[in-house]
Design goal:
single chain, about 140 residues, mainly alpha, 7 helices, about 0% strand, elongated
């Protein structure tokens, strides 16, 4: 996942945006792309000569089996994470833990909480997920 760097009034931005808007939202979009590429969709349209319910089926499958796509970082989150991942730490403050959990929950639309049991293990798992998104973001 990348963010467009540059003037958003250019052809390059419109091409980049079109590419990212075409990405599948879920299983229904993927099946539609496959049936279109193989010619099955054209055949079904020709045989039925009317609406076969493909778009409703696609939307239902997208809703049932969505592809989980992380949200983009805010500028402040990105700057904080850049500083965070730039150096090793021997200890982690409670505020830093809270910040990492907040970022994780917002971008991945989850509701992880800091708990009393095995917080370092949980923090490392949360940090790894955020780092994976961060690395793709760059």
């Amino acid at each position: 996942m990348t963010e467009f760097k540059g003037d958003k009034r250019t052809k390059e931005y419109r091409a980049w945006k079109a590419k990212h808007e075409k990405q599948s939202k879920g299983l229904g979009d993927t099946i539609e792309k496959i049936t279109t590429a193989t010619g099955i969709k054209s055949l079904v349209d020709w045989v039925t000569e009317e609406d076969c319910g493909c778009s409703e089926r696609r939307d239902a499958l997208n809703k049932l089996f969505p592809y989980k796509k992380p949200k983009w970082f805010t500028e402040q989150e990105y700057e904080w994470l850049t500083e965070w991942f730039s150096r090793k730490r021997n200890s982690i403050s409670v505020d830093a833990q809270k910040r990492m959990f907040e970022i994780h929950n917002r971008i991945l639309d989850e509701n992880e909480r800091i708990t009393g049991g095995c917080t370092p293990c949980k923090f490392n798992r949360i940090q790894a997920k955020v780092k994976q998104v961060y690395d793709k973001y760059q």
